[in-house]
Amino acid sequence: MHLQQSENRLIVQAPAKLNLSLRILARRPDGFHEIETVMVSIQHYDTLSFAPSSQVDISFRFEDLTYHSLAAATHSSTVETAVVPQDHTNLVVRAALLLKEYANVNYGAEILLQKRIPAAAGLAGGSSDAAATLAALNQLWNLRLNLQELSQLASRLGSDIPFFLCGKPIAVCRGRGEIIEPVELQEKLWFVVAKPQAGLSTALVYRHCQPTQDSPSIAPLLSNLANGDQISAAHALHNGLQAAAVELCPAIRQLESTFANLDVIAHQMSGSGTAYFGWCRSETAAQTAAQQLTHLGLAQVFVACSGL
Ligand code: ATP
Asked: Which residues contact 191 (CB under 8 A, 6 or more apart)?
């Protein structure tokens, strides 16, 4: 996440994430799942802008810059797109109100969210927006909360949010996702990402998955990444939610077979889907695969490298 001061505004680029490994270990008594996941942030961003306000309220504006909104504007109503709430239920407003209450803040803020990350995609756009909001308002309101306090607040809103606060492009996340162990990355990783028109609800996919302790260990992925051996690392991709998501959304099966014919090192779904990605040898290889996917007209497609 990058925070940048522009006159009296703070501009934040909130990245998407991919799951290189996602192990669903067990169902917990609290209703969540015990997971172990390797998450990487990628340079495909929502942009948020924060300005001080003379009012005590949080004012929130939303601009949809996703491919789907552009397609819907020019074509007909056949686009099936997840609805991002534009009221107080948006994670941005929820994060702002939670911070305001926690820190007993008496002033408000004007927030603009420009959305590029597709929703209900397993790319954690909403979580990243919430993390950006906590970090930016902590600065704008001069609250000086430390990372631990912000992360505790974040985990009350969603399990993926603390990862985006940790400031590292790649980390192992455990518990329900909120226990973060950053990992050093030797070099940039390149990906091609495809999002079908259909989206999936995270809760629904979790309800349909089968937890297991027998899924592949993350150790080979991490050791090969540490040695700069991307080819071996990519062959250790795993997603314990993919089988359930494929049952719920046939478009993912179509992406599985399409990616099998592309020049990518390895491929799988991200998070609870429906976004699907290929790990590529280079930026050029990723661009070539993106052109082929776009040509097939299957999905919204973009190329992104790992975050900084
Ligand atoms: P994850 O990988 O964390 O499950 P996701 O990509 O599947 O994330 P998100 O786009 O983060 O899903 O959001 C899931 C749902 O949350 C959306 O369908 C939407 O209804 C709601 N939501 C609330 N605030 C936001 C936001 N700022 N951006 C996107 N979705 C939001």
From this structure: 18, 42, 277, 278, 279, 280, 286, 303, 304, 305, 306
C-alpha gyration radius of the chain: 19
Ligand 1 midpoint to CA 201 (Å): 9
Q: How many CA atoms lie within 13 A of 210 on its CB side?
A: 6
Q: Which of 46, 61, 91, 157 to mutate to test the pocket of ligand 1 (most atoms within 8 A of CB)?
A: 91
Strands (E), 183-237: 190-195
Q: Is ipTM > 0.85 here?
A: yes
Name residue, tokens 């990058």.
2
3-class DSSP state for residue 122?
coil
Distance (Å, whole) CA 300 – CA 218 = 29
Choosing from 46, 100, 129, 160, which is the catalytic residue?
A: 160
Q: Which atom of ligand 1 is nearest to the CA of 200?
A: 7
Domains of the chain from N-terminus onward:
2-182 (3.30.230.10), 190-305 (3.30.70.890)
Under 8 Å between Cβ of 79 and 130: no
pTM across the whole model? 0.94
- Per residue in 228-282, pLDDT tens? 999 999 999 999 999 999 999 999 999 999 999 999 999 999 999 999 999 999 9
Ligand 1 atom nearest to CA at 127? 11
